[in-house]
Amino acid sequence: MQQSDESLLEEIRNGSQAAMEVLVKKHYRTIFAYTYRKVGDYHLAYDMTQEIFIKMLKYISSYSGQGKFQHWLLKIAVNHCRDYYRSSAYRNKNQINEINDHLKDERENIEDLLSKKHTSVKVKEAIDQLPVYQREAIILKYYQDLKIKKIAELTEAKESTVKSRLKQGMAKLKIILMEGNEDKDEQIQPNRRNRYR
To answer: Where does the secretion signal sit in this chain (predicted)?
Structure first.
């Protein structure tokens, strides 16, 4: 039977290194998945996940026990990713990739793709093109299965702001993905006149 976070935290407060390792192992996959979806680079996500757990160790004494430990840890991850996007390391790295592939079925609903945790390169690249706060809200809702209220707490935003970010982000995703389909149609039918010109 898996130990609860609370009992592990109690052991950690009493100096148990083994309990610390169990706690990290228990939450590693969730934090790595969030970070990888946020930055889109496996090796960078790996390094950042290590840094997030180092921060967890540093601030674990400040965890009050109010609310789920995993949500407290996710908040550290959210802030760490925000810090990365503000850093010169990010500004110096070209993160925007062209969408090379396109949706096979444009009728497929964007929200359905996300709720199925669709791992398509196309969807991931489209999410990467969203503004940071919209991307953050979409990842937390559709990949971490968090409620609006919890996303608002983690991102220190009003619930109405989170809803707005989700709505605008979904609208932009739809445009990005549908544009990809039109480009594909252009390649298939090169003689067809481009209606946007």
So the answer is: none
Last residue of a domain, one of 95, 124, 150: 95
Q: What's the burial of 149, exposed, middle or buried (CB within 10 Å: 0-12/13-18/19+)?
A: exposed
Q: Which amino acid is at 39?
A: V
109-165 residue pLDDT tens: 566 666 555 446 778 888 888 998 999 998 888 888 889 999 999 999 999 999 999
Write the CATH number for 69.
1.10.1740.10
| Three-class DSSP category at 13 | helix
Question: CA of 186: how far to CAs of 173, 189, 193, in Å?
Answer: 20, 5, 9
What are the residue ranges of helices labelled H in 60-147? 69-86, 88-91, 110-115, 121-128, 132-138
Classify burial at 116, counting beta carbons within 10 Å of its beta carbon; exposed 0-12, middle 13-18, buried 19 or more.
exposed
